[in-house]
Design goal:
single chain, mainly alpha, Four Helix Bundle (Hemerythrin (Met), subunit A), Helix Hairpins, 2 domains, 10 helices, elongated
Length: about 270
């Protein structure tokens, strides 16, 4: 295993290398997109060759990262993410199944691990999952309650929209997303003028209150993820500074010993 901060590891993590990998990933995505056009069948062998060449490059790059980082490579979640994508690509390339070949496009996901801004977004979504699940539980309770109320109120008026609990939930889901809500509510309001006493509280509660909790959680999680990313960068900088300080200290100590040895020789002479 090479020492931490070796030249190969620094080169692989450099901005120039990241830009090269990002460029090749985009080229790979374009190639996979071109393979879907039936008018380009005569170029399929060339596209397949380019795809295989790019896969070989990605595998070689992953092998170099493992060699340069050693056990440190497996301590990084993003490195493991890259390794998983590459292994999936290898499996899809060695299999004739169209389902596996389709997952080659997952290589584009590697762009996420290359750029800190994209990593922050993904980390924020991951960090927000516990809070999102709690809000989803509240949303489900409210949604289930409103669906039963809507079924009992509007089943006779609009049986095609509120034919059952499932039908009511689907209709209210459309209303929650403000999907053609006027076409849904106006026929009911024509037969039941006071139905707005149900629809307005539902839309306010579900759309403007509960759903906004999701956005609030994600925004807070993004701030936390950004802070964590900054701490990681500062931690790496501090670690590199400590390593450089240790190297300089060792060199100074070596020079001190050499000077003392020279003084001893001069005194003997």
């Amino acid at each position: 295993m090479l020492p931490h901060g070796n030249k190969l590891e620094k080169w692989l993590d450099s901005d120039c290398m990241h830009e090269i990998i990002a460029f090749l990933i985009i080229i790979n995505a374009i190639v996979l997109g071109l393979e879907t056009y039936t008018s380009l069948k005569e170029y399929l062998p060339l596209l397949h060759a380019i795809d295989k060449a790019l896969l070989i490059f990605f595998v070689a790059e992953l092998a170099l990262r493992v060699f340069a980082g050693g056990i440190r490579f497996f301590r990084s979640g993003w490195h493991l993410f890259d390794a998983f994508i590459i292994l999936i690509s290898i499996a899809s390339a060695s299999s004739g199944l169209s389902a596996l070949r389709a997952v080659r496009i997952l290589r584009v996901m590697r762009l996420i691990s290359l750029f800190p801004q994209l990593r922050i977004v993904v980390s924020a979504i991951y960090m927000a999952i516990p809070g999102v699940l709690s809000v989803a539980g509240i949303l489900l309770v409210f949604f289930y309650t409103f669906s039963i109320i809507a079924f009992n109120l509007f089943n006779d008026i609009s049986p095609e929209m509120f034919s059952s609990l499932g039908g009511s939930m689907y209709t209210l889901f459309q209303l929650m997303l403000c999907d053609d809500w006027s076409a849904t509510t106006r026929p009911i309001l024509a037969k039941m003028p006071h139905a707005y006493l149900f629809f307005i509280p539902f839309v306010i509660t579900m759309t403007f209150c509960v759903l906004n909790l999701f956005f609030g959680l994600i925004v807070n999680a993004m701030q936390s993820a950004a802070d964590k990313e900054s701490e990681d960068i500062l931690g790496m900088a501090d670690e590199e500074a400590e390593n450089e300080t240790a190297i300089l200290t060792a060199k100074i100590e070596g020079l001190t010993h050499e000077i003392q040895a020279l003084k001893a020789l001069i005194r003997k002479e």
